[in-house]
């Protein structure tokens, strides 16, 4: 199955009909372009008494099966990574040997990718091309422009994918945050200019399409987090997504304002902060102490930021809850703040973790229980989706990055804002954008691979 010069296709192998393991293909004039290559994790099985998660024997890291494009890698012009979240970048070290194509991405994302590739002894094998926002590159039959948007990680990019037969706007993960704190912002004119040029299809994030209103800005969280830390008398541990450099910046400001020392607990947090420094987007005023020193400080001077907001095993917060973290032990009167919301499927593991913390006498503050915002989503709610459709005015809307209810809600928003045609499908469906918009169901077999004992295995 090869697109000819009259064809413009979109073919998702992962991330459409689900949240996670994004892997998207665009086809035109004999070439394929891949956008994102991410992982997902198995849904929790049994939760034990200590709150640990048992996954019924499944590999702990899973990703979309790339067999379709691996069999055609001579026609794969390149791979673009839109941003550095695991569900968009995490599968590259596992799958690149099957693809063997150049990788295009932004500076911060490239810093994260290099660290991942080094663990697999691939650092000097994978050609990484760093692209600036606003830059255009010819990649095979596709002319691609990187467009600035905001998300819960520095320097995410949307893409304008141009061909002689038609244009596609690929949003990636995004929100409209006028005060993102770290990294680039966005301009509505970027997207209204696309409408003037003409956009045949908009392939867009559906995660929060069921949520009314507008997402909260990162800048709006300072007051709530400051109040929570100020009211604490013992140690404070904040758990959040390690990739949210803006949240770390806010916590750094709060540490200085409250006379606390901030340290990072967890490998992903340490890697992200190092990448932010290397990319030039870490505020030099945000000084961190060695986490090994936290246990020697008076309790009221400690502000630790820990991995484990989703109840994952072997993370820093899990080890603190079990009393086996090497840097310090939580005590009654300490406070743990969840500056994150549960990813669907993780609720049971998070509840078990919170119960364990409370059994220690630790005060737990969650985003759901806090009277003021202490967490902001990185995805667009309905008002933002409506605004983007009004700016871009695509002829066809293709919702992705969501389960069925999210994509259906997204399609309704597109129709309500005047889009003439919506195509709602799932992994393996072929979306034909040119010459005639339409969809063929389950043209390609899809599935999952897992990483087990240093090898890729099929996951049923």
From TrEMBL:
Enzyme Commission code: 3.1.-.-
KW Nuclease (keyword) present: yes
InterPro entries: Metallo-B-lactamas, RibonucZ/Hydroxyglut_hydro, RMMBL, RNase_J_2, RNase_J_b_CASP
Protein name as it appears in the record: Ribonuclease J
One function term, GO molecular function aspect: hydrolase activity
Residue ranges annotated for the Metallo-beta-lactamase domain, each copy included: 20-214
SMART domains associated with the record: Lactamase_B
Domain of life assignment: Bacteria
Entry annotated with the keyword Lipid metabolism: no
Keywords: Exonuclease, Hydrolase, Metal-binding, Nuclease, RNA-binding, Zinc
